[in-house]
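Contributing: when you submit paired examples, paste them exactly as shown. First protein:
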Amino acid sequence: MAETGPSRLPDTGLDARSSGIDIRTDIDYREAAQIIARSFEYIRFFTWRYIGKFVLKLGSYALPLALIPWPVKILTDHVILGIPIEEATDYPTYVWPLINALHGSSVLEIIFWLAAIGITLVVLIGSYTTGYEDETEAGLAQGHDYATQVENKIHGGYSTAGGIYGYTEFKLDIRLLQSLNHTLRAQLFSRIGALSMTQLEDQRIGDSIYRVMYDAPQINEIFYELTHTPIMSTVLYLQAVITVLNAYPNNSEIFWMTLAVFPVWVTLSSLFSRPVRRRGQAARAAGAITTSTIEEGMDNVLAVQSLGGNANEKEHFAGDSGESFKRHRAVSLLWMFIGSFGSFVSSAVYWLFLAFILTKVIDGDMTPGDLAALLVYFGYLRGPMMSLSILWVRLQDNVAGMRRVFAMMDLPAEDDLGSIDLPAIQDGVSIKQAGLVYPDGRRALEDVSLDAKIGQIVALVGPTGAGKTSLAYLIPRFHVASEGDVRIDGYAVNQLTLQSLRSQITYVFQETQLFSDSILDNIRYGKPDATLEEVQAAATTAGIDDFIQSLPDGYQTRLGSATSSKLSVGQKQRISIARGLLRDSKILILDEPTSALDPETEQYLVRALHEAAKNRLVIIIAHRLSTIAQSDHIVFLDEGRILEQGPPAELLSKTDGHYRRFVELQTTT
């Protein structure tokens, strides 16, 4: 199908604020086909459910098509017009047994049997009358917003039948929709979690949320459009053609009139495919920007309020939201135009068809009952052709969403370079002439060498930006050294599996990382099977047990509730430390563990860490001298290089030493 349209891209600078992953909105025909094919591969997870749904859906269309029009014709011709049932003509083969059974029946008897048939059909497949049909569905009232559209794609099961049949299909449809979407969402969420630390730091949280919540469900639409529409439309069209030609063998014009709309509508609708894709992609990028703005505004609400930035944030959000509205409006207007255009073509064919049938009725070649029956069949002849002809265009907005999903899933995951499982750590860490260069070319570390043994407390010290955290990141392989060698117990970390490596290393980050869950479950997050006694022991070591016990709900206090919102930064920090201690890993890395603690609590924690270090390696990134001084080994860094290292007393004895100047600067200040 030919595609036309402008090649000018929208404001990619604005879209880049959403994410640098995928800001190119121009998707060509080949890429769209590849995305559709890749989406379709997910059918393998639900083959039997899909087959069941397909069979039921086929029946929900085919049964009404085969059964509904003919009672209408019988009622019109033989009850209203009074034509004797024995003079009946123009019925398909499978209806003649009913006609023959009605021979000799009075008008009231015919009405009775038609009513009985109608009640049976209502119970089995629902009610079908002119301009109305039963359907079984569960969905929100839907507008042009992605929120209700997505919810209906996930949870809005649907059947074109009612009654027992429709309920059965509806239940299977909901199960299939939810399972399909859950599978893709879970894969995407897992992929995001597997990204490298560098990629995660560059990715806006709101954009990731948008891809999981609003882009991933587009696979449901592709799945159904690509499987049900072509097959169902073809089968229903052929069934309608066979039935009509069986009843009216001398009126093949009916068939050609509805078939003629297909090539015309395919040619015209193909002009819209590229604009739909481009506008859909641009609208989703703008929606992701708005989501990110909300998330970041709420996350930094205290800074906004303290700095009087409410007006700026309001203006910022209004701009992003306005752009999102403008782009979604463009999508809606485009679909409105496509719909109007389709209605024009469909109406033209309808009036042509109606004129043809009325001429036949006036000439006496058909009865008014034939008119009623054929108008029903006209919908079944025209509908499949319209569905098939616009199929490619309908897929394009879904393609835009799935392109964003696959762009995220195709990002290189954190490389699990190794194949060796690390045995229980016995010795410690050895780093030789290691260096680290970030993807943007900035050098973070150069020629770094360090030996740290089990039983030691090692302090990484230096000015801000010296490379302390970058050095610590090399050990659990959050960053991979660009050069040099990083080993644990003689094993190069690049040769170790990530699971075996990180299962023996606990990293407590400087920023408090707590979940909206109970304090108990937060502390035992890294060791879910820990007993309450083990949790309390870790909390006691971290100096937070007494405070937790004083809370009304104790360890069951939920973080995020009114009570926990009153926790100080230091209290939250100690909960994080307790979580790290509970895991009982051989290497414990603490990034600024005492920065928010008072001197008394700090001294208590440092003493506890000395006790904990008897059977593990504790690495502390710190600026506070009171913490640093009680370590066994100090590593002083500046500008990505280790300038000196050794015991605290030894480094202090150097009159021109870097660490001594660092200490003097702090004590003088």
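Second protein:
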Amino acid sequence: MEKQKNAVGRRKEAVTRVFLSKGTGNIIVNDKDYKQYFSLQYLQNQVELPMKTIQALDKYDVKINATGGGMKGQAEAAKLGIARALVELNAEFRPALKAVGVLKRDPRSVERKKFGHKKARRSFQFSKR
């Protein structure tokens, strides 16, 4: 069996499991081509970014299982997962990927709703009289 590396990427509520193996550059997300799954161009660019950084877009096949969150969250989670899998495959890729910033987990997530408030920060309307 060929060498396959896997990694996990997360962003907001989205979680992606990424499986990376030698191949011809196919990127499959939930059994669909990534260009079909992520129909917007900027989301496709997010997914391609780690591979383009190391000029390996046509050297590896990527299979992604994405769950939770929205399209943007899943695309950014996939980006992180692909970058982590590439570093696991070859540690020499780390400096280039780190310089672009694709190895960083974005810690921002939804702020919780507080009691006595309408939303996380929005209060109920206040009437003086």
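If you have annotations for the second protein, write them as plain sentences, like these:
Strands lie at 4-11, 14-22, 27-29, 32-33, 60-67.
The radius of gyration is 18 Å.
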